Write a sequence for this structure.
């Protein structure tokens, strides 16, 4: 055979190898996680319910024992964590309020517990009032400063947050390291954030603390995903499930890998629908809507979006889903004004760069592009490094003919498609 006869075969081989290299690597294996999709029973919720019955009967027999209320409240918090049922979060609040009132707000541990409950409800300003109340009492100061850091970060009071973080600095303490990781993530230094979270994980493993290991592995799963370390992200979620097979947050992380990285919509839906059985929360239907949108199935996309909104109507979720609502409404011309209304409320309740991003984005979508730019430059640029925020900035710059600022953002966004989701790929390419 003459050499030139080999050329077509060689070209085909090169093209085949090139195509394989550009195909997303298969990370997940159904055999790794399938057993967690149909768990019979949940030890954590079973134990929590037994404890509620036990301590409630003791409290009923001795209503003057207010300490029992805090114990019962913590068990309802566990039920909320595993079921996602908002009623359990509100029951926790009710019991903690009752306990605090009975003690005339004198026990810092109970005050802090109620503060954390308010954080879960996105009632951040009220949480700050309680944290300051606990600080004024003075007892357990270090624990209160941890709460203050958490609240100040949520409110965008970053200098105050850093002051509190430095007040309990200890490179050998788990609680300090996870907050130091959060601080570096806020600054846009993901590499450093991961290194501190890994140090925290090492402490959790050394102490063999189940709760801390679950928290470390699941959060590292998120961090690794943001950094494009998909295999490490997947492995971390599997480690979480190995310790707690009912930890649905980790399963949701795996569903996102299957959807966003592997683009396997059928399997992603199967995982999400398995989670729904035991942990039924509105955001799961938004994820299903995203999946349907990627499939080009507008009927299913709208259906799941409607289920999401119906869940919000059926139960009072307060401000917990304001961010999602703003983003959904802003994308629909008919509801853009509604998005702006919610964004203004969010800025008032939680004046962070991310909230101002929602406001700027909403103004852009109601046609006020100059107002959007003004808000973005004053409150968002250089203050938030989230990919969604960066996409919004690029669109605002584009609308204001500041084209030179779009290209570098577009370049960064192309490496963030996994985090943003595949529906953003076309949007980014159009920038």
């Amino acid at each position: 055979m003459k050499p030139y006869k080999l050329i077509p075969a060689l070209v085909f081989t090169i093209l085949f190898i090139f195509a394989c290299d550009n195909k997303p690597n298969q990370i997940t294996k159904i055999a790794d996680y399938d057993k967690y999709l149909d768990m019979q029973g949940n030890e954590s919720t079973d134990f929590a319910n037994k404890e509620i019955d036990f301590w409630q009967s003791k409290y009923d027999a001795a209503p003057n024992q207010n300490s029992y209320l805090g114990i019962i409240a913590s068990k309802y918090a566990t039920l909320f964590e595993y079921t996602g049922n908002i009623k359990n979060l509100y029951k926790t609040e009710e019991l903690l309020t009752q306990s605090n009132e009975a003690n005339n707000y004198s026990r810092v541990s109970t005050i802090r517990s109620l503060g954390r409950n308010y954080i879960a409800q996105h009632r951040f300003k009220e949480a700050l009032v309680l944290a300051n109340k606990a600080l004024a009492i003075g007892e357990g100061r270090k624990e209160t400063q941890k709460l203050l850091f958490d609240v100040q970060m949520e409110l965008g009071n970053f200098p105050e947050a850093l002051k509190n973080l430095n007040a309990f600095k200890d490179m050998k303490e788990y609680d300090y390291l996870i907050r130091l990781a959060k601080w570096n993530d806020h600054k846009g230094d993901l590499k450093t954030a991961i290194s501190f979270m890994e140090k925290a994980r090492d402490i959790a493993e050394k102490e063999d603390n189940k709760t801390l290991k679950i928290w470390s592995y699941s959060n590292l799963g998120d961090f690794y995903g943001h950094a494009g370390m998909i295999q490490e992200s997947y492995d971390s979620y599997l480690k979480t499930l190995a310790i707690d097979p009912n930890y649905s947050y980790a399963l949701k992380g795996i569903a996102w890998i299957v959807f966003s990285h592997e683009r396997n919509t059928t399997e992603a839906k199967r995982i999400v629908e398995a989670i729904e059985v035991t942990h039924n929360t509105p955001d799961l239907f938004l994820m299903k809507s995203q999946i349907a949108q990627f499939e080009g199935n507008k009927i299913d996309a709208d259906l799941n979006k409607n289920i999401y909104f119906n869940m919000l109507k059926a139960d009072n979720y307060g401000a917990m889903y304001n961010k999602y609502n703003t983003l959904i409404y802003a994308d629909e011309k008919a509801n853009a004004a509604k998005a702006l209304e919610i964004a203004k409320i969010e800025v008032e309740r939680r004046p962070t760069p991310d909230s101002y991003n929602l406001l700027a984005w909403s103004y852009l979508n109601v046609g006020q592009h100059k107002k959007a730019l003004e808000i973005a430059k004053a409150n968002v640029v250089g203050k938030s490094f989230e990919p969604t925020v960066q996409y919004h900035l690029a669109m605002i710059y584009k609308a204001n003919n500041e084209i030179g600022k779009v290209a570098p953002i577009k370049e960064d966004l192309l490496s963030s498609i996994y985090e943003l989701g595949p529906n953003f790929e076309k949007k980014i390419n159009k920038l």
In short: Residues 43-61 form the longest helix (19 residues).
